[in-house]
Write a structure and sequence with these properties.
Rossmann fold; Arc Repressor Mutant, subunit A; 5 domains; 8-stranded mixed β-sheet; 6-stranded parallel β-sheet; 41% helix; binds adenosine-5'-triphosphate; binds magnesium ion; ATP-binding; hydrolase
């Protein structure tokens, strides 16, 4: 038996081996929270306190769930495949698959990702003749998701005026429409599970008896409904083991509630509170930077982090004149890291928003450096892949109207808008899905729609008889998608992506153990090991707690769920040694030898929206803390004076976060003389620039009028503090571009504007 415990420090050991009671592990980044959680699962199983089936572990991303499962597999000689380790969404999906009947869902219900959800809402508003300027589809979507995340159905939402009442009414219609089509959005997965568990005592008791140990990573980012769900599952007697870091709460904008940590301590009467203070991830300078920065937040639970790793290298900071130059610099640094033998997959490039990745991607592509983007446009969100997925969805559940509309005339098969309208009328009239309504359409429209239905039926038949990857391959041909893209000028890339979908299916089958003759899949009838049982006169599906978990989905359903749920893992590129690109949000929980944090400018990071919102700036600071603490050995930060973003040129001030970092841990990299760096005036710590260089930069500032200089800080009564970026004209006709941070760039007449030096 492997000794699981010998690599732990005393606090970690105490946490791993706590008795079976509620516990909270509160600790900063890199202190081993995730490691403790995983080791505890292994320890509980190894010491016979619980069987693998009695564990429910919640992680924040699918990637994290995979990692945890494979670590467990390495620690223990057990089959981890059936274990309930996953994200809230993934676990709820699994629960609803097992209890679809009780949840009033069709067996092959499908998951709407946010893009699908929005297009469905648009379609619905159009069909109802609702003015989408007055009721913007996106707002309705936020409204619905928000309500669901608070556990509210349309009838539970209190509307305080007519406008609001309309939203509520539309929410209701939306839910009915989803029900008719057999689709659920992300928030619905959770709400539906929660409702079913609260409604059905037998089911609730069954799962409470089963999951003796519930373990939650990244607890600080749970939302209200997730917290309620945990409370329900935990019941009176199970042990909830929560690990979290209030300083890393970064999803408030999506309803996460860091207050859940305090609520948990109080409501679960947590006796075991353990803090971990030793950081095992980052070298000293990196950790000092993180600690000093986060100390600027006021609302903190308070904890410290120290390391034995020594100071290591200082944090390197680079200023560029443009985003293009920033990308060029990044490429050079990456190249020299690679020359020194660093692994590509151990180098991460982080940014605040997805839009920033384009320039970096382009530079990497040109330099021939393989990279992988997490988030951004995900593989499964590309148009051609969505089309292919829509065919697969129809094969699995032909009543999915979104899928139907997406491909009924793609590739074109002569089914025009008029025919679709007729079909939509018929569907409304008979209260059925579009697919089911086809026989009610007559004439030419009816016969061309009939042709489409026959095509789908043929594919559905093949789905019964072939392995998943063959099903995907056959669909690509039969649907005409490949043939269609062959005629398109830029279709080659798309065909390549479609072929990658076949590889993704293959990989999925081998990883999940699906396959027509693999024992894991024994058809829908095998879904409940113990079969339906009668408890208190109510029929429920019961899964035997100690039996290995049955696979409840067909390979196709499972693959489709995976496509909707996977959080940015690009299957097709998995395994390749590539540079890692992602937003700071998606870097949560991960670690890399070297990290670049790019675009550290006011308005971008901290994001401009945050400065106006209550608590917004503190959330940005936590985000920056997350970014810094991803790095093990080397950390770079960069910012740029100008940047093209969303088609607009922006002039930026460097992020205020630089002023919150300890000087002793920073190393300012050499600026280029032609940069006109106004910044040279403000910051004195130029490690790499000889004194003469700094003077040359200072002298290159053009003196123009009345002593105003480029780079000078000024204050304006209305716009606040700013920096002069350029000066044009002279004498009485002298104007300046001044960057006022959150008020943006202004062109002011220097003779009229009342400016003060600061
Ligand atoms: P985050 O807050 O970023 O999620 P975390 O607290 O979950 O961080 P882990 O990812 O579990 O931290 O651990 C950080 C790193 O430190 C990992 O590489 C882990 O293997 C290592 N580590 C944790 N504890 C120890 C230990 N006792 N000895 C050696 N290495 C350790
Ligand atoms: Mg972690």
């Amino acid at each position: 038996m492997q000794n699981l415990l010998h690599n732990l420090n005393p606090e970690q050991l105490a946490a791993v081996t706590l008795p079976s009671q509620h516990a909270m592990i509160l600790a900063g980044a890199g202190s081993g929270k995730t490691r403790v959680l995983t080791t505890r699962i292994a320890w509980l199983i190894q010491t016979g306190q619980v069987s693998p089936a009695g564990i429910l572990a919640v992680t924040f991303t699918n990637k994290a769930a995979k990692e945890m499962t494979s670590r467990l597999g390495a620690m223990l000689p057990i089959n981890t495949r059936g274990m309930w380790i996953g994200t809230f969404h993934g676990l709820c999906n699994r629960f609803l698959r097992a209890h679809y009947r009780d949840a009033a869902l069709p067996q092959s219900f499908q998951i709407l990702d946010s893009g699908d959800q929005l297009s469905m809402i648009k379609r619905m508003l159009k069909a109802l003749n609702v003015d989408d300027e007055k009721y913007p589809p996106r707002n309705l979507m936020y409204f619905i998701n928000n309500a669901k995340e608070q556990g509210l159905r349309a009838q539970d939402v209190e509307a305080y005026d007519d406008y609001n009442r309309k939203f509520v009414e539309l929410y209701d219609i939306y839910d009915q429409q989803c029900q008719r089509e057999g689709v659920v959005d992300f928030a619905e997965l959770l709400l539906r599970t929660y409702e079913l568990l609260s409604r059905s005592q037998p089911l609730r008791e069954h799962y409470q008896a089963r999951f003796r140990h519930i373990l939650v990573d990244e607890f600080q980012d749970t939302n209200d409904l997730q917290y309620k769900w945990l409370k329900l599952l935990a019941g009176q007697s199970n042990a909830v083991f929560a690990v979290g870091d209030d300083d890393q709460s970064i999803y408030a904008f999506r309803g996460a509630n860091v207050g859940n940590m305090a609520a948990f301590e109080r409501e679960f009467r947590v006796q075991n509170l353990i803090k971990l203070e030793q950081n095992y991830r980052s070298h000293g300078h990196i950790l000092d930077a993180a600690n000093t920065l986060i100390a600027h937040n006021t609302r903190r639970l308070g904890k410290n982090l120290r390391t034995d790793a020594g100071h290591g290298e200082p944090v390197r900071i680079f200023e560029s004149s443009s985003d293009l130059q920033e990308a060029q610099w990044l490429i050079e640094e990456v190249k020299s890291l690679l020359n020194e033998g660093w692994m590509r997959s151990e180098i991460a490039v982080l940014y605040r928003s997805n839009a920033q990745s384009r320039v970096i991607e382009h530079a990497l592509f040109t330099a021939g450096i393989p990279y992988r983007v997490y988030g951004g446009q995900r593989f499964f969100e590309r148009a051609e892949i969505k089309h292919a997925i829509a065919y697969l969805q129809l094969m699995d559940n032909p009543h999915n109207d979104s899928a139907f509309l997406r491909v009924v005339n793609f590739p074109a098969r002569g089914i025009g808008a008029r025919s679709i309208e007729q079909l939509q009328d018929a569907a409304r009239q008979h209260g059925m899905s579009l697919y089911a309504a086809v026989p009610h359409v007559s004439g030419k429209a009816g016969s061309s729609l009939g042709g489409f239905v026959r095509l789908v039926e043929r594919m559905r038949f093949e789905n019964q008889t072939m392995p998943l990857q063959e099903v995907v391959k056959a669909m690509l041909d039969a649907s005409g998608l490949i043939a269609h893209y062959q005629t398109e000028k830029e279709g080659a890339d798309r065909i390549e992506n479609l072929e990658q979908l076949v590889s993704a299916a293959m990989l999925f089958v081998s990883e999940e153990g699906f396959g027509i003759d693999a024992p894991a899949f024994a058809g829908p009838k095998a879904q409940a090991v113990a079969g339906p049982a009668l408890v208190d006169g109510e029929e429920v599906e019961v899964i035997d707690a100690d039996a290995p978990l049955p696979t409840v989905m067909s390979p196709l359903s499972a693959f489709l769920s995976h496509a909707s749920l996977e959080a940015g893992d690009n299957q097709a590129q998995a395994g390749q040694d590539a540079l890692q690109l992602m937003t700071v949000h998606s870097a949560k929980g991960l670690e890399f030898d070297a990290v670049f944090i790019t675009g550290l400018e006011e308005g971008l990071f901290p994001h401009e929206n945050s400065t106006q919102e209550e608590g917004g700036l503190e959330e940005e600071r936590r985000l920056m803390y997350v970014a810094i603490t991803r790095a093990r050995k080397r950390l770079y930060m960069s910012f740029s004076q100008t940047r093209m973003l969303h088609g607009q040129s922006r002039y930026n001030m460097r992020s205020r976060f630089f002023d919150e970092l300890p000087d002793a841990s920073l190393k300012w990299l050499s600026p280029r003389v032609q940069q006109h760096s106004w910044f040279a005036q403000r910051k004195t710590a130029w490690d790499d620039v000889p004194e003469a260089g700094v003077n040359a930069i200072a002298q290159s500032f053009t003196r123009k009028d009345a002593g105003w200089r480029i780079g000078e800080s000024v204050a304006h009564a209305k716009f606040g503090e700013g920096v002069i970026v350029s000066i044009e004209g002279s004498g009485t006709n002298c104007r300046a571009h001044i960057n006022f941070g959150k008020h943006g760039m202004k062109l002011l007449d220097l003779n009229i504007a009342k400016l003060e030096r600061v």
